[in-house]
Amino acid sequence: AEGTHMDGCLFCKIVAGDVPATLVRETESTVAFRDINPQAPTHVLVIPRVHHPDAASLAAAEPEIAADVLREAGEVAKEEKLDSYRIVFNTGSGAGQTVFHAHAHVLGGRGLQWPPG
Ligand code: 5GP
Ligand code: ZN
Fold it and tell me: What ipTM was predicted for this assembly?
């Protein structure tokens, strides 16, 4: 269930090409695509191809791939010409996590408030 494809996982289906997405970047270990319900002018999700339920689980199991996700988040920001942006890992339903396949949100192109609420 972890480390490869997980049946029924939406983001594993995007990795497999079984659910369409607007791809932004791909690497051997990651896929970046536009969020279907954007919360900012740039709202891109960066995910590992392997399945882990959240970012901390990914980092514990496969730290090199967690680093790849972070590096790709920065590459997305550069491609989108964002000088200020936010990388978010919602973890747990109380924090708004709805898809339990690790993903970084890259948000930018507008002012971002802190604290986020
Ligand atoms: P979470 O709430 O788990 O941190 O983030 C999940 C994100 O996935 C949400 O921002 C949601 O809009 C996005 N999302 C959900 N379903 C799809 C989909 O089918 N395609 C794309 N591109 N994004 C999706
Ligand atoms: Zn998955």
Answer: 0.99
